[in-house]
UniProtKB/TrEMBL annotation:
SUPFAM superfamilies according to UniProt: Acyl-CoA N-acyltransferases (Nat)
Domain N-acetyltransferase: 1-152
Source species, domain of life: Bacteria
InterPro entries: Acyl_CoA_acyltransferase, GNAT_dom, YpeA/RimI_acetyltransf
Record protein name field: N-acetyltransferase domain-containing protein
Gene3D superfamilies referenced in this protein's UniProt entry, alphabetically: 3.40.630.30
Organism phylogeny: Bacteria, Pseudomonadati, Pseudomonadota, Gammaproteobacteria, Lysobacterales
């Protein structure tokens, strides 16, 4: 992991586009419209994250010297908040996400903090992963399900 910089923005936008690809294919929109939509949505999301979570760690995940994902993590006094995790499609399903979450849990447990996150209701694979890793459902808010892991429970 390393801190994200302005030079990472093209990769981060590409990664964001990958996470929205299936959703956009279902729209039937022309390719140019999909690309413009994703570019605009990335700017909006990135701007929101940087402003809302100004003190967070914005990290690029690397395998050897190659960027493979992102982790946005805010460390707070009582909990760590996983703002966002995304991996390139080619590395999903290989245990990278699980290892990353376990690492976050271990770091939080060292100081008796919990870990919170929100998962898109359509992302059943991520939801099942979080359940397997000891997170509990804290309720639905809009299009997202809140989840929490407590260091003293798992």
């Amino acid at each position: 992991m390393r801190r994200a910089s302005a030079e990472d923005l093209p990769f981060l936008q590409h990664l964001y586009a990958e996470t929205r690809a299936a959703e956009l294919r279902a729209t039937g929109w022309p390719q140019a419209l999909c690309e413009r939509f994703v570019a605009d949505q990335f700017v909006l999301q990135h701007t929101h994250y940087v402003r809302r979570y100004a003190d967070a760690d914005f990290l690029v995940l690397q395998l050897e010297a190659r960027a493979i994902g992102r982790l946005y993590l805010q460390r707070e006094a009582s909990d760590d908040l996983i703002i966002d995790i995304a991996l390139l499609a080619e590395v999903r399903g290989r245990g990278v996400g699980s290892a990353l979450i376990i690492h976050i849990q271990q770091n939080a447990a060292r100081t008796d903090r919990g870990v919170r996150l929100h998962v898109d209701l359509r992302n059943e694979a991520a939801y099942r992963l979080y359940l397997r890793l000891g997170f509990r459902d804290t309720g639905v808010e809009g299009a997202y399900r809140g989840m929490r892991w407590d260091a003293n429970v798992s």
